[in-house]
Design a protein that fits this description.
alpha+beta; about 575 residues; five-stranded antiparallel sheet; about 35% strand; seven-stranded mixed sheet; flat
């Protein structure tokens, strides 16, 4: 009876102890902005062991900061232990912090899960890094978006410059982009900034230092109020804390501040309908137009090149060139499109051209009608049309000559056939072959043994073939290398000529993207290519190498170069295309 009583007493005490253990997770609220820091606390009323933080992948974590308190109030003793963490969200969405776990008296206890909602970045009123009497980051650190023109026409370039202003009493040690703005309804081109340099400027009527973090050129593709999403960044700073000490030294602490630009609205005006020419295909800017034949006198069956080019400043990659209209006797092939375009901060400039190969089919004089090119001039805000001159072709030989040649060739062939068959003898003299019996001869035994000797060779060949087929990685690598060399064949032909080589190399890499991603050259921007390749499971390092090589092709044409450097770029291109072929799905 005594044992039973002890058992039930222990069971009751254990049950009471289990009920008394409290372990919970808490935050001050459930909704936070992207640029706010979340304070989450795991608290318990017992000194438990083996605290485990649940896996958290959508936040950057600072902590833990452990606190232990014991108290005695009116003879009642108490205990509280807490693990405090600061979470910095990486993206917008709804996230769940799963249960944490502790161990006490051999039993496991779990906390409650927390659901946290992250919304768009907001402008903060309170500085989370005030540093008690020191410098307030809110008053000394600003991320600004400069957009000189906010009411452009469709396809008129606008520039965005992201500047970080900071006062002289704080230092910037590092910066990290949290979310890259997506320029929906814009064609975009990032302007590379190799090394940010601190400069001096006036902001809010006071002297500040600033760093240019990012430059982007945008071409709006439709009219209306278009939204540019905010750029959010974490800025690591060194901030003075309090007053100088006895020796005049100021204590400096490290702090991180999240800053955001907020949304920007661009009011895009449509191009006027009044006076819009039929030949207008979307060109906006200032251009010259040229149509040039490689020659105007030729023979039937020979070819000439007709080059149609547009040069100037404007949206060169975002419109199509006009097509020539030819007489039926002139056969025309699909054009070879070339682009020699750079994109500085003031917009695209350079030349685009289509080169058509034309072959006359008969003798005569032919006329290529004038070709019209229209564009919207941003200086006068009017449409302008340039018309090329009429082109006259003189084809010296035609179908009569060709027919005569065919007749002569036929007659020569028939004469040759008659001469050949004239020596065939119609009567023969046959004699029996005198030889030994085939059975038992060396030839007989040789033919008998050959199949048996061939069996081991066939077995070895089959095993080797199966081994090659089983080598999936090796076969895929061979296929990828072959594909890379296929696209780069033209570049290899020009490997001893620097400028044609880099033109062919850039075109080969663009053609690879067009084939694999099903996009046009006009759609190729750095952000677009990166987004598409990463969405197809390409390795980020390989994507970055692809972008760097394509961007360097333009500069390499005009920079000093050596044969060894050109060969290195070619091998690098083969490697990158081969890797992308294996990676993208």
């Amino acid at each position: 009876m005594k044992r039973v009583l002890i058992f039930f007493t222990l069971l009751l005490l254990n049950s009471m102890m289990a009920q008394q253990v409290k372990f919970e997770a808490s935050t001050d609220r459930t909704t936070y902005a992207l640029n706010e820091t979340i304070e989450i606390t795991f608290s318990m009323n017992v000194d438990a062991d083996n605290f485990e933080l649940p896996p958290i992948s959508d936040f950057r974590i600072q902590g833990p900061f452990i606190s232990v308190q014991e108290y005695n109030f009116n003879g009642r003793r108490g205990f509280e232990k807490s693990y405090k963490y600061y979470l910095v969200p990486k993206k917008i969405g709804v996230f769940t912090i799963k249960e944490s776990q502790i161990e006490f008296n051999g039993r496991l206890y779990k906390s409650n899960p927390l659901k946290i909602k992250i919304i768009k970045a907001i402008q903060q009123q309170n500085d989370p890094y005030q540093n008690g009497g020191g410098v307030r980051l809110d008053d000394n650190l600003y991320l600004i978006t400069e957009i000189p023109k906010t009411n452009p026409y469709v396809n008129e370039p606008i520039t965005i410059v992201y500047k970080l202003y900071f006062s002289y009493n704080i230092g910037i040690t590092n910066s990290r982009e949290l979310n890259k703005p997506k320029y929906n309804d814009f064609w975009s081109q990032n302007i590379e900034i190799k090394q940010p340099v601190a400069q001096e400027g006036i902001f809010k009527g006071q002297n500040y230092r600033y760093i240019i973090l990012k430059k982007v050129v945008l071409y709006p593709q439709k009219s209306g109020n278009l939204v540019i999403e905010p750029l959010s960044m974490d800025i690591d700073c060194q901030v003075p804390k309090g007053q100088p000490d006895f020796f005049g030294q100021i204590e400096v602490v490290n702090a991180t501040k999240r800053v955001s630009t907020g949304n920007k609205i661009i009011n895009v005006k449509p191009l006027p309908e009044n006076g819009k020419p039929k030949s207008f295909s979307g060109a906006v800017g200032r251009f010259t137009f040229d149509v040039t034949p490689s020659r105007t006198t030729l023979k039937s069956g020979e070819s000439l090149d007709l080059n149609i080019s547009v040069s100037g400043i404007g949206n060169l990659k975002l419109f199509t060139l006009p097509k020539p209209e030819l007489p039926a006797s002139l056969e025309m092939y699909d054009p070879q499109h070339t682009e020699n375009v750079t994109t500085p901060l003031n917009g695209m400039s350079g030349t685009i051209s289509d080169r058509y190969t034309i072959i006359p089919q008969e003798k005569g004089d032919f006329t290529i009608k004038p070709i019209q090119f229209s564009y919207f001039d941003l200086n006068s805000n009017t449409y302008k049309t340039i018309t090329s001159k009429e082109i006259h072709l003189n084809v010296l030989q035609g179908s009569e000559v060709a027919k005569s040649n065919v007749t002569n060739d036929t007659e020569k062939t028939e004469a040759k056939a008659k001469k050949t068959f004239a020596f065939i003898k119609l009567k023969t003299t046959l004699k029996p072959i005198e030889s030994d019996d085939f059975l038992g001869s060396n030839l007989f035994y040789g033919l008998l043994i050959v199949p048996f000797l061939a069996i081991p060779a066939l077995v070895l060949f089959r095993k080797r073939k199966e081994a090659e087929d089983a080598d999936i990685i090796g076969n895929k690598k061979k296929k990828s290398n072959a594909l890379a060399k296929k696209y780069l064949s033209e570049a290899k032909k020009q490997i001893n000529n620097k400028e044609p080589f880099y033109i062919a190399l850039e075109k080969a890499m663009h053609n690879f993207l067009k084939a694999k991603l099903n996009i046009e050259t006009s759609e190729m921007s750095k952000d677009k290519i990166t987004e598409l390749l990463l969405s197809r499971n390409a390795n980020s390092e390989t994507v970055n190498e692809f972008i760097v090589l394509t961007e360097s092709c333009e500069l390499a044409r005009y920079a000093p170069s050596t044969n060894s450097l050109i060969n290195q770029d070619y091998e690098k291109a083969v490697e990158i295309i081969s890797n992308l072929e294996k990676q993208i799905s």
